[in-house]
Write a structure and sequence with these properties.
binds adenosine-5'-diphosphate; Alpha-Beta Plaits
Length: 285
């Protein structure tokens, strides 16, 4: 494991923000931390990054190097009146790094930023700011990266592009990456492992797709003329526009798609409708 968090506890006065939290992330893995606002995600990240101390428990980083871990907490902290290159240069100085102009240019290219923008970063879109913040976090080659709500404020195209960058960092550079969000859809596509945090406790954890399957009781099927499907008469189903929300188990999905095809109803999408109450229920693991 690159990162191991063991029994981390943190309180502010009577408020128990983190209760014996355990989490681990290995090289090349993307771990998602899913929880509502106030669940304790940022506090955990601050502890992992060494910005605050836990009351008890340990954080172990099995990495050698100048900077074992990099991260972005809350929102990208950039100098808004400086341009991208000037921001990078300044953070290089802070981190004791000397990079030539062509090396700085390469850092911008690596995160997909244009090299010909010389205006202040206050003009940048949120997605561009996130990319620049990632480039800064990646200075000095950390092996672990913490991203706190990196998708917030991004449009769908920005989310897709940032997803691509994050998966590249894990798959090509072998980074251990931990991402927080309160929106499951932001995590489900890219996270290998998912940790569900509620009121400071990790209530569920495991491979993301397994958790999704275990906590899904219905699937939404979209297709032209789905309302006329005879096979659906045998299921508990609710029609919503061009889609049908059908109660069934994951293993029954391929058979239903096949039966729909036999009726010449061709599915354009099949999406699990995650039961969030079940996912966030302590008692149902
Ligand atoms: P999340 O990132 O999941 O939204 P946070 O870790 O920011 O949650 O906050 C968890 C809880 O801890 C919240 O109730 C928050 O108000 C409280 N909290 C966070 N930091 C402090 C602090 N420095 N002093 C007192 N309470 C805090």
């Amino acid at each position: 494991m690159i990162l191991s968090v063991k029994n981390v506890t943190k309180s502010y006065g009577n408020l128990h923000v983190l209760k014996a939290v355990n989490l681990a992330c290995k090289a090349g893995e993307i771990c998602g931390l899913l929880g509502a606002n106030g669940a304790g995600k940022t506090t955990l990240f601050k502890i992992i990054l060494g910005l605050i101390q836990p009351d008890s428990g340990t954080v172990t980083l099995n990495v050698k190097g100048v900077k074992p871990i990099g991260g972005i907490i809350e929102k990208p902290a950039l100098y808004e009146y400086l341009n991208a290159r000037e921001n990078l240069r300044l953070f290089c100085k802070i981190q004791g790094l000397k990079l030539s102009d062509s090396e700085l240019e390469l850092k911008l290219k690596e995160v997909g930023l244009p090299v010909d923008r010389h205006d202040p970063v206050r003009n940048f879109s949120m997605g561009m700011k996130q990319r620049l913040a990632i480039a800064i976090a990646m200075l000095n080659h950390p092996k672990c990266l913490i991203l706190d709500e990196p998708f917030s404020g991004l449009d769908p195209l920005g989310i897709t592009a940032l997803r691509g960058l994050i998966t590249d960092l894990a798959e090509k550079e072998g980074l251990a990456i931990i991402i927080s969000s309160h929106i499951i859809e932001e995590l489900s596509k890219i996270c290998n492992m998912l940790y569900v945090i509620k009121d400071g406790s990790i209530i569920k954890s495991g491979p993301t797709q397994e958790l999704i399957v275990h906590n899904t009781t219905s699937y939404s099927f979209s297709a032209p003329d789905i309302k006329n499907a005879r096979v659906l008469k045998g299921y508990e189903v609710q029609f919503k526009g061009n889609s049908a929300s059908v109660q069934l188990k994951a293993e029954e999905v391929p058979k239903l798609i096949q039966k729909l095809q036999e009726e010449q109803i061709y599915i354009t999408s099949c999406v699990p409708e995650l039961n969030m109450d079940k996912l966030f229920d302590y008692s149902k693991v």
